[in-house]
Amino acid sequence: MSRSDASAVPVAPPVEFQETRPLPPAVAALRDLIHRRLIEELDQQRLAGLPAGAARRAVGDAAGQILAASPQTAVGEWRQQILDELADEVLGFGPLEPLLRDDSVTEIMVNGPEDIWVERGGRLSHSASRFRDRAHIMHVIERIVAPLGRHVDEGSPMVDARLPDGSRVNIVVPPAAPDGPKITLRKFARRRLTHVDLERIGTLTPEATAFLRASVEAELNILVSGGTGTGKTTLLNVLSSFIGLHERVITIEDPVELQLQQPHVVCLEARPPGLEGTRQITQRDLVRNALRMRPDRVIVGEVRGPEAFDMLQAMNTGHDGSISTVHANTPRDAVSRVENMVLMAGYDLPDHAVREQIASAIQLIVQISRLPDGSRRITHVTEVAGIEGQTLLLQDLFLLEVKGRDEAGKLLTRFRPTGLQPQFKERFERAGVPFPSEILRREDWDER
Ligand SMILES: Nc1ncnc2c1ncn2[C@@H]1O[C@H](COP(=O)(O)OP(=O)(O)OP(=O)(O)O)[C@@H](O)[C@H]1O
Ligand SMILES: [Mg+2]
Predict the structure, then answer these.
(1) For the segment 304-335, what is each residue's pLDDT rounded down to a tens digit?
(2) Partners of 412 in the beta sheet?
(3) How far is the CA of 85 from the centre of ligand 1 (A)?
């Protein structure tokens, strides 16, 4: 197997980060006073037309003048922080801004004005950032949703949105969140993890990578299964990186997250119903449309509903090599989820017919899980081998074994083939891809 590219992607060192301290109450009061004056004095429309850097300077200059004229002189060391916070407030998402700028933060969770959590390197910690009060959180929420033509209020208290930089935001306000507004923000990963990263982290072994790469090249239809935040989208992105450069790839997402590097990629994105009756665009609409766009591959970011029916139909009518993710905790759970989603399409199909469709459409399920020690691992590579009576036949090709724990409490694991040979072997021959039989031979592994 080729590992010559293993050193091609340099791994960025983790960013050391120190959060700024909150302003002392008297200084914070001064900042708020200046903020109110700024809102009166600044021409918001003019600011919106300026490039980001120039707008920040304009706000800084105006705030600096008000500050210089203010009778309070005890701002000293806090001056720059006051100006930064004012610029973040006037131009951006207020207290969220420093956390958005901090590359080590991957998620931001606002539970209350003084109860903000962040995730760094897979670990949650309390942030020093503060909102003034609930109204301040609501103000920032308005700034997030207003440009999208969305509304958050008692009538529609739960909204998904996206920041201009691609970050995903979920918002819940009263009455759905009775003790005040909540924001959950998954930051857009500027650089997605590659297969080299996943091997370094231990999510993939070189053997698993080689097997999955060959499976993508052989145009198997693959389903990545995993729970919330386990790394499904990241793994889908990695699998998609094995698609050939000459292929036309159509991606369907809600919202767009994948970062494919191939030269020939068309991204389609679903859209919820908007204000003034703008029509919803469903993933199902997009899957149907994608099939009229001469795709070599259709990638659905996450199957969640009736589009599963159209996906299976497409896979069964010659659109091979599709890859998708599904929210499920085991390969068995994954196929039953798909079964339920197909039924959502409303064609009143008998269960057996749906299972037959699944059995002939999907060849491989890759299960990713978060282990009790916080690490993410591929736990199963499972073949959908057919149907026996009423039951789909699932055959594990690789399984993760837990061998024990090291002194630091980290789980020691081994990812091993079961020794079983998959039915889909002949698909490799058809696609002209050498079947990686040496990776599947269990005897070789027992000696290690
Ligand atoms: N194998 C991994 N090891 C460590 N961190 C990872 C791994 N895969 C993904 N991550 C990180 O975990 C977070 C969630 O990843 P990702 O979006 O891929 O998960 P997901 O399962 O698709 O989540 P969701 O359920 O919200 O769709 C990201 O911050 C990502 O960088
Ligand atoms: Mg995802």
Answers:
(1) 999 999 999 999 988 999 999 999 999 999 99
(2) 404
(3) 30
Instruction: Name all residues whose Cβ lies below 6 A of ligand 1.
Output: 106, 122, 189, 193, 198, 201, 203, 226, 228-234, 376
> Of 123, 191, 199, 234, which is best to mutate to test ligand 1, by the most ligand atoms within 8 angstroms of its C-beta?
234
pLDDT in tens, 122-159: 778 999 999 999 999 999 999 999 988 888 999 999 99
Would 402 be classed as within a structural domain?
yes
| 282 & 410 share domain | yes
Q: Which atom of ligand 1 is nearest to the CA of 228?
A: 25
Q: Is 74 helix (H, G, I), strand (E, B) or coil?
A: coil
CA distance 232 to 226: 6
Q: Give the helix ranges, DSSP H, for 221-267.
A: 232-240
Which of 99, 212, 233 has the most ligand 1 atoms within 8 A of CB, as the residue to mutate?
A: 233
CB 170 within 8 A of CB 229: no
439 neighbors 213 (Cβ within 8 angstroms): no
Give residue-wise pLDDT tens across range 175-189: 999 999 999 999 988
Note whether 161 and 145 are within 8 A (CB): yes
Query: Rounded distance, CA 220 to CA 400, Å?
Result: 22
Do both 177 and 284 map to the same domain? no
| pTM of the complete model | 0.80
Q: For the chain, what is the domain count?
A: 3
User: Quick check: helix, strand or coil at residue 395?
Assistant: strand
Domain that holds residue 98: 92-190
In three-state secondary structure terms, 161 is strand
| Atom 29 (ligand 1) nearest CA | 106
Residue where a domain stops, chosen among 162, 190, 218: 190
Residue 219 contacts residue 427 (beta carbons within 8 Å): yes
Q: Is residue 1 part of a domain?
A: no
Report the C-alpha gap between 97 and 94 in whole angstroms. 6
| Tokens 């701002």, located at residue | 75
The CA-CA-CA angle for residues 262, 267, 268, to 5°, reads 160
Sort strands 182-186 and 105-112 into parallel, antiparallel or unpaired. Answer: antiparallel
Task: Give the total residue count for the chain.
Answer: 448
166 & 204 share domain: no
Closest-lying ligand 1 atom to the alpha carbon of residue 325: 22
Whether residue 183 is contained in a domain is answered as: yes
Q: For residue range 215-269, what is the model confidence (pLDDT) as tens digits?
A: 999 999 999 999 998 999 999 999 999 999 999 999 999 888 899 999 999 999 9
For ligand 1, the distance from its centroid to the CA atom of residue 230, given in whole angstroms, is: 5
